[in-house]
Amino acid sequence: MSVDISATETLDVKGENCPMPVVKTKQAIDDLAVDDVLEVVATDSGSMSDIAGWADTTNGVELLDQVEGDDVYTHYVRKTE
Known about the structure:
By secondary structure, the protein is α+β, with helices and mostly antiparallel strands. Helix content is 27%, strand content 32%. It has two helices and four strands, in the order βαβαββ.
Protein backbone atom coordinates (compact mmCIF):
# COMPACT_ATOMS: atom_id res chain seq x y z
CA MET A 1 0.00 0.00 0.00
CA SER A 2 2.24 2.80 1.33
CA VAL A 3 0.24 5.90 0.58
CA ASP A 4 0.87 9.32 2.09
CA ILE A 5 -1.21 9.32 5.25
CA SER A 6 -1.34 12.24 7.67
CA ALA A 7 -1.59 10.91 11.22
CA THR A 8 -3.36 12.84 13.95
CA GLU A 9 -1.48 11.04 16.73
CA THR A 10 1.45 8.64 16.97
CA LEU A 11 1.54 5.72 19.38
CA ASP A 12 4.97 4.23 20.08
CA VAL A 13 4.68 0.60 21.23
CA LYS A 14 8.23 -0.40 20.30
CA GLY A 15 9.51 -3.11 22.64
CA GLU A 16 5.97 -4.22 23.53
CA ASN A 17 4.87 -7.78 22.72
CA CYS A 18 1.45 -9.30 22.08
CA PRO A 19 -1.14 -8.35 23.19
CA MET A 20 0.06 -4.89 24.26
CA PRO A 21 0.29 -3.24 20.80
CA VAL A 22 -3.40 -4.03 20.22
CA VAL A 23 -4.44 -3.13 23.77
CA LYS A 24 -2.67 0.24 23.62
CA THR A 25 -3.96 0.89 20.08
CA LYS A 26 -7.53 0.37 21.28
CA GLN A 27 -6.98 2.70 24.24
CA ALA A 28 -5.48 5.39 22.01
CA ILE A 29 -8.26 5.10 19.39
CA ASP A 30 -10.88 5.54 22.11
CA ASP A 31 -9.40 8.98 22.90
CA LEU A 32 -9.51 10.22 19.29
CA ALA A 33 -12.25 11.99 17.37
CA VAL A 34 -14.05 10.49 14.37
CA ASP A 35 -11.86 10.58 11.22
CA ASP A 36 -8.65 10.99 13.24
CA VAL A 37 -5.80 8.71 12.17
CA LEU A 38 -3.56 6.92 14.65
CA GLU A 39 -0.05 5.95 13.57
CA VAL A 40 1.16 2.93 15.56
CA VAL A 41 4.89 2.17 15.53
CA ALA A 42 5.82 -1.31 16.76
CA THR A 43 8.75 -3.72 16.80
CA ASP A 44 6.67 -6.88 17.31
CA SER A 45 6.32 -8.60 13.91
CA GLY A 46 3.09 -10.17 15.16
CA SER A 47 1.55 -6.71 15.29
CA MET A 48 1.04 -6.93 11.51
CA SER A 49 -1.53 -9.70 11.83
CA ASP A 50 -2.74 -8.73 15.32
CA ILE A 51 -3.69 -5.14 14.47
CA ALA A 52 -5.14 -6.17 11.10
CA GLY A 53 -7.28 -8.83 12.79
CA TRP A 54 -8.40 -6.44 15.51
CA ALA A 55 -9.37 -3.78 12.97
CA ASP A 56 -11.30 -6.32 10.86
CA THR A 57 -13.39 -7.40 13.85
CA THR A 58 -13.86 -4.03 15.55
CA ASN A 59 -16.63 -1.59 14.69
CA GLY A 60 -15.57 2.01 14.45
CA VAL A 61 -12.05 1.54 13.10
CA GLU A 62 -10.51 1.12 9.66
CA LEU A 63 -6.99 -0.10 8.94
CA LEU A 64 -5.69 2.26 6.26
CA ASP A 65 -2.20 0.88 5.75
CA GLN A 66 0.61 -1.19 7.23
CA VAL A 67 4.27 -0.64 6.40
CA GLU A 68 6.93 -3.21 7.20
CA GLY A 69 10.37 -1.66 7.64
CA ASP A 70 13.63 -2.94 9.06
CA ASP A 71 12.47 -4.29 12.43
CA VAL A 72 9.80 -1.57 12.67
CA TYR A 73 6.16 -2.03 11.71
CA THR A 74 3.95 1.00 11.17
CA HIS A 75 0.16 0.82 11.17
CA TYR A 76 -2.35 3.53 10.27
CA VAL A 77 -5.78 3.18 11.86
CA ARG A 78 -8.67 5.62 11.33
CA LYS A 79 -11.50 6.05 13.82
CA THR A 80 -14.74 5.83 11.85
CA GLU A 81 -17.38 6.28 14.55
